[in-house]
Amino acid sequence: MCRQESQSHVRMSSEEEIAAEESLSIYCKPVEFYNILQRRAIRNPAFLQRCLSYKREAKHKKRIQMTVSVSRNEREGVQTQKLFPLYVFLARLVPDVVAPEYNATYRFSRACMLSNSTGVDGSGQHQANFILPDINKLALEAKSGSLAILLVSFVGAQNPLRGINLSKGPMDMASSPANVGGYCLWSKIPLELLYISWESSPNFGLGQRAELMSTIDMQSCFLKLSCSNEDKCLMIAIPYNPETAIISQQVQVNISAEELGAREKSPYNTYIRNDIPSSSLAHIIRLRAGNVIFNYRYYNNTLQRTEVTEDFSCPFCLVKCASFKGLKYHLLSSHDLFNFEFWVTEECQAVNVSVKTDNWTSEIVADGVDPKLQVFFFCSKPLRRRRPKSLNQNSKHVHPHVLHSSLPSGLCVLLDKADDAHSSKGDKARISGVSSSIPQSYADPGCVQSISGNNFAPSQMLLFAKTRKLSVERSDPRNCALLRKRQFFHSHRAQPMTLEQVLSDQDSEDEVDDDVADFEDRRMLDDFVDVTKDEKQMMHMWNSFVRKQQVLADGHIPWACEAFSRLHAHELVQSPALIWCWRLFMIKLWNHGLLDARSMNNCNIILEQYPSKVLDPKS
Amino acid sequence: MAKFALGSEPVVGSLSSSKKREYRVTNRLQEGKKPIYAVVFNFIDSRYFNVFATVGGNRVTVYECLEGGVIAVLQSYIDEDKDESFYTVSWACNVDGTPLLVAGGFNGTMRVIDCGSEKIDKSFVGHGDSINEIRTQPLKSSLVVSASKDESVRLWNVHTGICILIFAGAGGHRNEVLSVDFHPSDIYRIASCGMDNTIKIWSMKEFWTYVEKSFTWTDLPSKFPTKYVQFPVFLASIHTNYVDCNRWLGDFMLSKSVDSEIVLWEPKMKEQSPGEGTVDILQKYPVPGCDIWFIKFSCDFHYNAAAIGNREGKIFIWELQSSPPVLIAKLSHPQSKSPIRQTAMSFDGSTILSCCEDGTIWRWDVMENS
């Protein structure tokens, strides 16, 4: 974090300076904490961040929104009024003309109907909006000369498009008769023309609005609309008979274009001051674009240090937030250990940061306090989430979801994740007291991620379950007092236990008494009459070994055989009859496919080498 | 129920008294209103052969039999638990020779009383229910065994206060254990019987290391690795009802149910297969009117005779080791009408004590006729 000293007007004594330095250190712990979270997020980025990166990319595309409208000047009179409803198409010329009787065929995807302002149903639309790719891509399109804006009006003639809601897209078209046609007035504005005018406009490339007003002639023609499932085509035939071309009318068309989303500009980005020469404006805009000033307040908000980040980056986790608004939401949701004040002027966009002094909700543990010893409270209440009623075409709904959060950071992201998974309701967890721990204690980065909305069980419980130890030192003092209150008895012997035993880590509840089990095994084997003594001993040794070592799965057998050979090598080597039993048993295991040849060989090597090992030191 | 081969039917004793000995009531004590369930002479310590103890209610009393039918009260202990009702008492001995009394009953706690210092030495907690009988190993008198309503038999070391073994589990009793006894010579062997109508013989040979360990244990008693003995070495179904008393007679066994008779039988174990075996019923000692449960018999030190009371307050004394059995004496007194729960024969059988349901103790002494 690059900090620079702000000019402080207060003169301070050296003691005060030291105190001020110390008070600045309250930033250390939260910043350290967020650094850890950030490192953890590298491997497993949170949902919100991934959304953000998509939004950032989208913003860089700088698409153009074009608006076409027809001016309704009174002096134009009734003639213009008669043209309504006027259809506006953004259409592409199909180079190979299918039908010879038509002059041109255009393919389009969407048509807009401009209606009279005095529309009976009041649903009139005065302008048609089209979204174009960014200016560089548009250059290629313009050069090809195939794209054009078409204006079509059925003046008094039979309207083949009546009753068809063109603006809705292809599904209505499909239901209508596939081919309709009729006489109409039409004109076209090549996109090339528009492009040239935009290109020449000095500030259009910097996100400024460009307006174009032109008067166009509308000529009569025969128009045929053909719709298949995917292709919507306009076919135009200009009549040879000049008499039919009499009907011609002039219309004034306004075409304005600007970068998409420019409406939401903050005062910082408007550049309405006129004293800047337009030549240097481009430079200034580029320089200022994503710069945000962060003022870190400390020493009871009397001092501050300043940092400037670019590209709307978060100074704590370096996430690029695409816009000042995005940065605002990011800071509020992800870094709630700080208080933020946001302000935007024409001069600058800035954030005042101060550390929250409310210890109760703090994630930060004081020095010398073991977070594991702290009591962890958890309570949850159902979250009522504001959701947009309908998804309008507005880009507004793409905002980050967590708007107002009193949660510790990180968890918000998780909650959001959980919430999106359930897509309706999630649990809002509120954690009071010292929550989980100092983050370093989580060795596993997946640890936090795996916690989902409702599973914020105290980590202490999990610890118990894992180690199967009931350590009173770690547990609630209240539980300990309860343990002291009454006499406890041993689960096997029913003998009264001393407090020391009750509080110790030993728990024999499920233990098998190996001595007794051995004894019973031997007695069971004694019942066999057709088994030799050595075989019985071998069986007993193996049974006992298998029970004590918990050899349960087939996969354990190779290991068990080697360990058994090592453990009983002495007895086996001493008695040839016994070792023969053991080998026979291994062969049986091999027959059943439980023991591989290599392991069997290892066992025999262990047994072969055993006597030499013992005898060597003696000799 | 045991089947008998032809020609090997048990010998049943004749109820016609041989009048070998004659007994006479020499004393009668009313200890209290509560029934007295046990009376026992001290056979552990030869200095105190004439000392006996009784239990009734929450009271343990120690008496001495003096010359001329006199009974002197030596000590009396009252349990702090008013609801306690002792069912059994046994003499035991510390390693250093201090006589101890081990009493148990309704509430399942065993009290070890040091009769030298007249204080409670230890309390054994462990049984989950009432204790029906406590017996002392005569060869190692710090070892006591207890039979409980919780279907288990426990072996304790009164010196160190350790519960060494628990005879219960898969092969254990399936109902209250009413009686238990140490083998007179085989230190590893005990026999128990109970409400599951069976008599089980247990061996602690495999676990003897733990018994030895219990004498040298210095850590907390609760940390001792108490072992479960789950399977008896022998199981006998002699009776068809509750078996409420069993005693070894050498390698033979005396046991009784509610059938008005004591049965002497021989457990015949197969060397190769423990747990299985056959029973040979040798003799029967009829005891008329002994048809309620929890009436126990007692023997003199040498097991020459056994004395048993009945429901009507009469006592039958059988010569045990003769065949056919000889009824030594039948004791009755017009005022003794209450059921006799337990009798006690003195070292040589010259004195017989009986404790009754009505809280009385009767002393019978052999008549010096001749």
Low-confidence stretches of chain B: none
Number of helices of chain B: 1
For the secondary structure, the number of strands of chain A is 18
Q: Span between N and C termini of chain A? A: 72 Å
Supply the CATH superfamily name of chain B: YVTN repeat-like/Quinoprotein amine dehydrogenase
Keywords (chain B): Chromatin regulator, Repeat, Transcription, Transcription regulation, WD repeat
Protein name (chain B): Putative transcription factor WD40-like family
Pfam family, one (chain B): WD40
GO biological process, one term (chain B): chromatin organization
How would you describe the overall organization of this protein?
The complex is a heterodimer of chains A (619) and B (370). In chain A, the strands form 4 sheets. In chain A, strands 3-4-9-8-7-6 form a 6-stranded antiparallel beta barrel. A 5-stranded mixed beta sheet of chain A has the order 1-12-11-14-13. In chain A, strand 17 and strand 18 form a beta hairpin. The radius of gyration of chain A is 41 Å and the shape is elongated. Chain A starts with a strand and ends with a helix. The longest helix of chain A has 22 residues, at 597-618. Among the domains of chain A are: 28-59 and 282-355, no CATH class; 63-164 and 178-260, no CATH class; 514-609. With 619 residues, chain A is an alpha+beta fold. In chain A, 36% of the residues lie in helices and 21% in strands. Chain B has 370 residues and is mainly beta. Chain B has a single domain (11-366), classed as YVTN repeat-like/Quinoprotein amine dehydrogenase (Methylamine Dehydrogenase, Chain H, 7 Propeller). Helix content of chain B is 2%, strand content 47%. Chain B contains 1 helix and 30 strands. In chain B, strand 8 (99-105) and strand 9 (110-114) form a beta hairpin. Chain B starts with 10 loop residues before the first strand and ends with a strand. The model of chain B has no long low-confidence stretch (mean pLDDT 91). Classes of the chains: A alpha+beta (619), B mainly beta (370). The A-B interface holds A 489-490, 492-498, 501, 513, 515-516, 519-520, 523, 526-527, 529 and B 125-128, 163, 166, 206-207, 220-231, 272-274. Chain B: Keywords: Chromatin regulator, Repeat, Transcription, Transcription regulation, WD repeat. Chain B: This is Putative transcription factor WD40-like family. Chain B: Belongs to the WD repeat ESC family.
